Request: fold
Amino acid sequence: MTISKHDLRSKARAQRAELARANPGIALRLAEHVEALNIHGGSVIGAYIAVKDEADPFLLLERLIAKNCAVALPRVIAKDEPLAFHRWKRGDKLEKGAFEILEPSEDTPLAFPHIVLVPLLAFDARGHRLGYGGGFYDRTLDFLRANSTVRAIGVAYAGQEVPELPREDHDHVLDAIITENGIRAFTTHKG
Reply:
C-alpha cells in the first residue's frame, strides 16, 4: 500500500518537531559547514526565515553575508505563481504575508538568486524533497532555472532523510542538502 503525500507530510511534520526539540543548536551546526557549500563571495542567496521547527539557516546566512554574499527573502505573490525574492539585510523590516510568514515588503528591490536555500519536510538519498504541498519552490525553481543556473540546497535535520519519496513531473531535485552533519551533493536533473 502506498502512503499519500498528505500522510507523509503529517508524519514528516511530527518527525521534524521531534528533531527540533532534540537539536536546539541546529543553526550553529549548519553554520559550521558554510565553507563546504563552496559559495563564492558576491553570490545572491535566496533564503528563508525559519518558522516553527524548520532547520534555521540564520547563522549560516550571517557567515555568507560576512563573505560578501547578498541575501534575498521570498514573498508570496499569488497562489499559483513563483515566489518573488527581494533583497534583505539585517535591520530591514519584515511584514507578515501569506501563511503568516515574515517576508519583505513589495517595494523592496527584487533579486534573482544564484543559490536558493529550501526548507522541507523530508528528503531522500536521490535529492527529492517533500515540501508543504503548495508547489511554491518548484514553480520558483522552474522560473529561475529557465533564465539562469541556480543551485537548490535543502536545509534540514539529518533525521529528516527517508528511504524514498514519491515524485511528480513538476518536482525539482535538490542539488545538495545541508544538515548538522555536513553537505551532501546530489546528481542534478529535473525528473
About this structure: The longest strand covers residues 70-75. The domain at 5-185 is CATH 3.40.50.10420 (Rossmann fold). The chain has one domain: 5-185. Helices lie at 5-22, 26-31, 58-66, 136-147.
